[in-house]
Amino acid sequence: DAKTTQPPSMDCAEGRAANLPCNHSTISGNEYVYWYRQIHSQGPQYIIHGLKNNETNEMASLIITEDRKSSTLILPHATLRDTAVYYCIVRSEIQGAQKLVFGQGTRLTINP
Amino acid sequence: EPEVTQTPSHQVTQMGQEVILRCVPISNHLYFYWYRQILGQKVEFLVSFYNNEISEKSEIFDDQFSVERPDGSNFTLKIRSTKLEDSAMYFCASTRDRPNTEAFFGQGTRLTVV
Lengths: 112, 114
Prior knowledge:
Low-confidence stretches of chain A: none
Structural class of chain A: mainly beta
Distance between the termini of chain B: 36 Å
Helix content of chain A: under 10%
Low-confidence stretches of chain B: none
Oligomer: heterodimer
Number of helices of chain A: 0
Distance between the termini of chain A: 37 Å
Strand content of chain B: over 45%
Radius of gyration of chain B: 13 Å
Shape of chain B: globular
Strand order of the largest sheet of chain A: 1-9-8-3-4
Largest sheet of chain B: 7 strands, mixed
Helix content of chain B: under 10%
């Protein structure tokens, strides 16, 4: 699996958009970009994933650069409950049972 | 919304004892996983399980560990002789039967070995 690089921590004001960057310069053509988050010590929670097109769901938007070497997770209107560690993971989909390789992630703190 | 459930939420055991951590994956999922997270560290992959056999395991998953799907709903992780360093949060996860899908995680079992 390709490695990812994320800032260790970020702050964002409540109600503002939180933009979390991720570098994955060694990503290969069949690898997807996944984002998960972990609130306190709970189980990781899936947020969104994409291959090369931008994606949006009810939780977030994912912007992937054209060369696919980096991406940004956007939480459009951050709330205090979005305080968590956010993980950017690249994952091959050649086989079905692909493990997730977690890095240190970005600790996002939403401030009132 | 369907969810992965894990029991117990917290288990305290003496060093050298056997423990079994239990998980009920989402009913129509076919791939099952165990991960662990030592306090303050990264989430680490332990093992994946498909079609009643291990499909991949990490170097952490040594002979002290085993997994089983004893019936159509439960997925268990057994640690035969616990060590102090096995103290961690253990997360079970499951995914559907095709690639490019998200993994659903349980809320974890906190294992404390004393």
